[in-house]
Design brief:
The complex is a heterodimer of chains A (88) and B (194).
Chain A: H1 13-18, H2 20-24, H3 30-42, H4 44-62, H5 71-84
Helix pairs in contact in A: 3-4
Chain B: H1 5-16, H2 21-32, H3 35-51, H4 62-77, H5 79-87, H6 99-106, H7 118-128, H8 131-142, H9 147-154, H10 158-182
Helix pairs in contact in B: 2-3, 2-4, 3-4, 4-5, 4-9, 6-10, 7-10, 8-10, 9-10
Classes of the chains: A mainly alpha (88), B mainly alpha (194).
Chain lengths: 88, 194
């Protein structure tokens, strides 16, 4: 996990929402995440907003499936690499 | 029989780089939005990767390395995309921070997020937003790259990844509102629009 946090305390809805995507993306420290979650669980508006964003991100991730490399392209790539000298 | 050093390097390349072919293809497809162009990007990416395989640091993320090459290949092939990147961060696209999600909630459109049919609409919406934002959304949301990894692939600071990601997601939400309406999803009455 990495953090790119300015360290400012989460004092209000704006502070919590500024960190929302960082939290949902796993980019906050555990301590910072607890702080943001604590605000969200105690604030109905922020909770609703956070819940929506979480569901939106889940929908995006679910859209990942499909779209693997076509077999014909895979063969072309391997053929081109062999022509370039790939031996294995 | 023992392999020679070049043979061992080639075997390592095949075992590592070629296993990421699906990921590189998806990324190239999202960059180019065109099947034939994506194929060109993938082929050129693998040729460049093979030629510079000795520069790959074993133990680092092969996908991040290949994504970086793929994006460079794409940018070199597209002057338009290059111009887009120089334009991006000051915001030709004015997106109100919370506006899109508030519209979703106010209009009661959010149940559609659980729809199994949303995938094609998401890809269509992704294709419609500027490449600057699309790349970062694809890397983080669809290819599970961290902010730091995405920053390395895109050659931008982490703060830029964060702002592009935010705006990219909001642009997608706006596009998907239109999809939900076009698809005939019956929204709850929006009192604030009255």
């Amino acid at each position: 996990m990495t953090t790119h946090d300015d360290g400012a305390p989460i004092k209000d809805c704006r502070g919590a929402m500024t960190k929302l995507f960082d939290m949902l993306d796993g980019e906050l420290t555990a301590e910072r995440e607890r702080e943001v979650r604590s605000h969200i669980t105690s604030c109905p508006d922020c909770f609703t907003h956070a819940d929506f964003e979480q569901r939106f991100l889940a929908a995006l991730q679910a859209a990942r499936s499909g779209g693997g490399c076509p077999g014909s392209l895979r063969n072309k790539v391997i053929e081109a690499l062999r022509a370039e000298g790939l031996t294995h | 029989m023992l392999m020679t050093a070049p043979e061992a390097a080639h075997a390592l390349f095949s075992a590592n780089a070629l296993t990421a072919l699906d990921d590189v293809y998806r990324f190239a497809r999202s960059l180019t939005r065109d099947e034939a162009d994506a194929e060109d990007v993938v082929q050129e990416t693998y040729l460049r990767a093979f030629r510079s395989w000795q520069t790959f640091q074993e133990g680092t993320d092969i996908r991040r390395w290949l994504f970086t090459i793929a994006r460079n290949v794409f940018l070199r092939s597209r002057e338009k995309a290059r111009r887009e990147v120089t334009l991006d961060d000051d915001g030709a696209e004015a997106v109100d921070a919370a506006q899109a999600s508030e519209v979703w909630l106010r209009r009661g459109l959010d149940p559609i997020l659980a729809s199994a049919d949303l995938g094609p609409a998401i890809h269509e919406a992704l294709d419609a937003i500027p490449e600057t934002f699309r790349s970062v959304v694809v890397l983080v949301d669809l290819e599970d790259q961290s902010y730091e990894d995405a920053a390395e692939v895109l050659g931008v600071p982490v703060g830029t990844v964060r702002s592009r990601l935010f705006r990219g997601r909001k642009l997608l939400q706006e596009r998907l509102i239109a999809y939900a309406q076009d698809a005939g999803f019956v929204p709850a009455p929006d009192r604030s629009d009255a």
